[in-house]
Amino acid sequence: MPVDDLPIVLDRGSTEPLAVQVADALRNAASTGTLRVGDRLTSTRELAARLGVSRTVTAAAYDQLLAEGWLAGRRGSGTFVTAAPPNLTPACPTGPSRSTGPSAPPATTVDLTAGRPCLDALDRAAWRRAWRAAGDRMPAPSPEFAGHPDFSQAVVDHLLRHRGLAASPEHVLATSGTTSGVAEVAAQLPRGATVAMEEPGYQRAAVTLEAAGLRVVTVPVDENGMRVDRLPDRIAAVYCTPAHQFPLGSRLSADRRVALVRRARDEGFLVLEDDYDGELRYDVAPLPLLASLCPDVVVHLGTTSKLLTPTLGTGWLVAPPEMHRRILRTRQRNCHRPSPAGQMVFAAFAEYGDLSRHLRRLRRELSERRAMVVDMLRSVDVEFQGDAAGAHLMVPLPGAEEEAAVVAGAAEAGVTVPGLLDYHHGRPSVFGISIGYASAGRADLDWGVELVAKVAAEALRS
Ligand SMILES: Cc1ncc(COP(=O)(O)O)c(C=O)c1O
User: Fold this and answer.
1) Rounded distance between C-alpha atoms, residue 32 and residue 36, angstroms
2) How far is ligand 1, taken at its centre, from the CA of residue 42, in Å?
3) Closest approach atom of ligand 1 to CA 303
C-alpha cells in the first residue's frame, strides 16, 4: 500500500520553489523516520492532485530525491524510500537485510513466499458485514469444544459444494487452523511412532509432528504427487497435500489416491489430508478427496488461511469417529477449544453468500495472476511446474548452487523468494524456487516476478 498521508505543508507565499518544498518535506520525513525504508510513495499524479500543484512539481521533487538516493523507483511498481538515518527499523522486518545509506540498493521488498492469502480479492464491505453479524450473535454460556454450531453447518455446506465431501455437522471439529489440527491428531498417536510425509513438504507439519514425539520420515514426490509405492512399512500415519502438493504443485493421481487409502486400510495407518487450498482450482478439475474415498482412515483438514486470512485462526477437521471422539475428549479434559470468534465470522461470511462470491473472485484473480507469472517466465525461457491451481508455482533449477544464487540475487534486488531448501526435512533432493503470487499487489508482483525470472534465466544460462 502506498503511503498517501505524506506530511507536506506548502508555503505558497515563499520564494522557495514548490518542487523544492515538496522534496525538502519528503527528505525531512525520511530522515526523521516519519517515512521508513521500504515505504512506497503515492504516485506523482496523486500527490499533485492532493497538494493542488501541477504534476511537474511533484515529479521534479521525486526526481531530486531519486538523484540523491533517498528514493528508488521502478516503472509500474512505484517509488520507494531507500535511505533512512541509522538505527531506523525497516518497514518490513521479514525482508532481506538492506543497508541504509543513500547509496543503498532499491529497498523494494516484494515478498513472493508461497502460502500467503490474496487480500486484494477480499471485498471489504462483505468482510465488515461478517464481523458485524458475528458480533450480533449472543456468545455461548459455556465452551463449545467441537466448535460453534453455525460454523459446523457452514463447513458442511462448504465441503459439499466446493470439495464434494458429504459430512454432517457432528463430524466436524473446528480447529485453530490446519497446523493446530495436525498437532491435535499427532497428540493422539503413540509417542515414538513413525509418520511419513512428502519431501519436499510443509515443514511446519514436520515440526508439529516431531513436537508431539513422533518420528518423521520422508517420501519423494513426482509429477503425480507423493510416491505411494515408497511409503515405508509400519507407520502410524501419513501427512500429505493431495489436492495441490506443497510446494511442487502437482496433485496426487487417481490411482495413487486409491493405492494410498487401500494401504492405509490394510496396514492400519491414518492419512492426514491437508487440503490447504483445494478450493482454488481454476482450470483443472478436482479429483475426489481422500476423505470421500475412505472416510474411515482419513483425517481431512481445511483452513481459512488461504481463502481468507490466517489471522482468523480458524480451520476444521473431519476425522474417523474414533479419532473424532478422542480429540473431543482431550479438549474437554484440558479445556482446549478453538476460539469461536473466527468461526462466527466465517459462518456469517458464508451465510450471506459472500463466501461463494469471494471464492469466484479469488479464483479469477489468482488465475489472472498465474497467467501473468507464466507469461513472464516463458518470455525468458524459464520453465515452471505446478497445476493451474492455488497460489504458487515452482521453477525447477538444476542444483543447490543455482537455487542459492537465484534466492540471493532476488533478495539483493529486494524480492523475497524461497528456495526449495526451506521445504526439505532431510537432505535437499529437488531444487528450485517457489513463487507465491497471491499476496503482493499486482504492480509489485509484476516487477518482482520479472526480476526473479531474469535472475533465474541468468542462473540457468551460466
Ligand atoms: C501446506 C500448508 N498447509 C497448511 C497451512 C497453514 O494452515 P493454518 O494457517 O491453517 O495452520 C499452510 C500455510 O502456509 C500450508 O502451506
Assistant:
1) 9
2) 33
3) 10
The answer as to CATH 3.40.640.10 being correct for domain 127-354 is yes
- Please tell me if the CB atom of residue 338 comes closer than 6 angstroms to any atom of ligand 1: no
Q: Which numbered atom of ligand 1 lies nearest the CA of 116?
A: 14
What digits encode the pLDDT tens for the residues 49-68? 888 888 888 888 888 888 77
Between 156 and 74, the higher pLDDT residue: 156
For residue 304, name the pLDDT band (cuts at 50, 70, 90).
very high
Whole-Å CA distances, 368 to 246, 329, 364, 442: 21, 45, 6, 10
pLDDT exceeds 70 at position 264 = yes
Domain spanning 110-123+355-461, CATH class: alpha beta
The CA 141 to ligand 1 mean position distance, Å, reads 31
Delimit the domains of the chain by residue range: 3-91, 110-123+355-461, 127-354
Across the range 318-327, mean pLDDT stands at: 98
Compute, in angstroms, the gap from residue 358 CA to the centroid of ligand 1: 19
Given this model, what pLDDT does residue 86 score? 38
Cβ 434 under 6 angstroms from ligand 1: no
The rounded distance, in Å, linking the Cα atoms of 279 and 363 is 9
Cross-strand bridge partners of residue 195: 216, 237
Q: How far is the CA of 408 from the centre of ligand 1 (A)?
A: 25
Task: Decide if 58 contacts 23 (C-beta within 8 A).
Answer: no
- What pLDDT does residue 87 have? 38
Rounded Cα–Cα distance for residues 22 and 39 (Å): 17
Give the DSSP letter of residue 120: G
- Decide: 208 in ligand 1 pocket, CB within 6 A: no
Q: What is the DSSP letter of 306?
A: T
Give DSSP secondary structure letters for 32-80.
HTSS-TTPEEPPHHHHHHHHTS-HHHHHHHHHHHHHHTSEEEETTTEEE
310 lines ligand 1 (CB under 6 A): yes
Question: Is the entire prediction scored with pTM above 0.85?
Answer: no
Mutate to test the pocket of ligand 1, among 197, 303, 309, 435 (most ligand atoms within 8 A of CB): 303
**Digit-coded pLDDT (tens) for 361-401:** 999 999 999 999 999 999 999 999 999 999 999 999 999 99
Instruction: Please identify, in words, the CATH class of the domain defined by 3-91.
Output: mainly alpha
Cα(406) to ligand 1 centroid in Å equals 25
